[in-house]
Each structure stands twice: as structure tokens, then as C-alpha cells.
Amino acid sequence: MSLAGWEALGQWGEDAARVERLAGGVANDVWSVRVRGQLAVGRLGTRSDADLAWEIELLQHLDREGQPVPVPTIDGRLFADGLLVMTHVEGGRPETEADWRRVGETLRRLHRLTQGWPQRPGWRSSTDLLYADTGTRIDLGAMPTEGVARCRAAWARLVGRQTCVVHGDPNPRNIRMTADRVALIDWDESHVDVPDLDLVLPHNAAGLDGCAHDIAAQASAAWEAAVCWDDEYAIKRLAQVRAV
């Protein structure tokens, strides 16, 4: 991102400043920032205002669950010029099987709290992609035809499931745990879909039975292949999706 983009940080106060670059998604520039004397996290990207407004409304809804919330600009706006500033969340990453079971419980609770949530503007769910070819970062037209057929066969097994907001990337880097709270950071990939996409966890911590775990694992691999295509990770994930 250009330096000009980060000049928007001045709208959070004259003393607002970047501190250190953080590992973020491929679509964003993510830094720890200091705003009004407090450590926070700034994310600069190219999402539309409608897309960011959806994410902010979601996080405000989940505030009582210990999730990060937006820090407003001096004049009260919750994002400005593609920049979103979020509260800094303390905690460590999950390590043990018991830790991951807490993560699974938290994800299921967040899923229950967001049933019936409207779709993120411009996004498509996995089952929408049985018929649509594009949605935000996904372009099935860029993938091999045979790979698309395999992904769609995996997603077809999800038809008829109840939907909710999924975090979209619950890997250890995006989880912060304390003794009394599990928080998920970086909701940039969140959208409305079937909860299965969040529940393929280490140690099968979400407690899926054999068939349910297979459906979820295949659908998740297909999603990650499509959303990241065609980097090395996406190619690896597509190889894990069974042939039709």
C-alpha cells in the first residue's frame, strides 16, 4: 500500500502512528498502531465502504463475546479511506487439544449468534458458487475446469445446511486466548456460509463425526483453493479435493 493510504491514520488523531508491520492477508497492509496512547491494529486495504460497514456491524454485534471492535476516528467514523483501526487483543495462540476445543466451542457460539445474517456485499457462499463463477476474491474461471468440477462436487454436499457468519480463516495466527476468553482477529475473510468451513480444526476439536468431518474437510479445502488461486498453498489444497 502507498504511504498516501496510511496518511488516513491522521484522522484518528495528530499523534496516531504506525508501530510495526504485522502478518496480514494478501489483500491488506496490517500494522500495529498507537492511537490516543493505546495500542491498536490498523488494516489498510481496497475493500468497498459497504464491505467494511458489514464487517464493522458484525464485530459490534459480537463485542460482548470478546471479539475486537473498531476504534473510531476523531469525528466518530468507524473507517476512513479504506483504513480500519481495531482494538488490540491480548492472548496466546492455541497449543493443546483442550485449547482447540475451546476454539471450537467459541466458533459454534459465534455461528449461533449470526444465523440469518445478511451476506457480505459482493461475496458468494460456497453453495452459491455451484452456479456463480465469481465472488470477491474468487474467480472460478481462472481455475482448471477439472478443478472447478471437484470443488463444486465438494460444495454440493453442503446444500440445504443452515448458514451463518463464518470467520473464514481460524488458523492459530488469528486466535488470541486467555484463561477466560477466546477471540478471533482478522475478520477480513468473514462472510455468510455454512459453519462447516470454520470447523476443520486440529484434534477434530469441533467434534465432527466421520462423515461430517469428511464433508467439512473437502468443502474447506475446495474453498481455500478457490479463494487463494493460484498460489502454492491453493494448488496444495486443490490436490486434497477428491476427483469427481
TrEMBL record:
<dbReference type="Pfam" id="PF01636">
    <property type="entry name" value="APH"/>
</dbReference>
<feature type="domain" description="Aminoglycoside phosphotransferase">
    <location>
        <begin position="19"/>
        <end position="215"/>
    </location>
</feature>
<protein>
    <submittedName>
        <fullName>Phosphotransferase</fullName>
    </submittedName>
</protein>
<dbReference type="InterPro" id="IPR002575">
    <property type="entry name" value="Aminoglycoside_PTrfase"/>
</dbReference>
<dbReference type="InterPro" id="IPR011009">
    <property type="entry name" value="Kinase-like_dom_sf"/>
</dbReference>
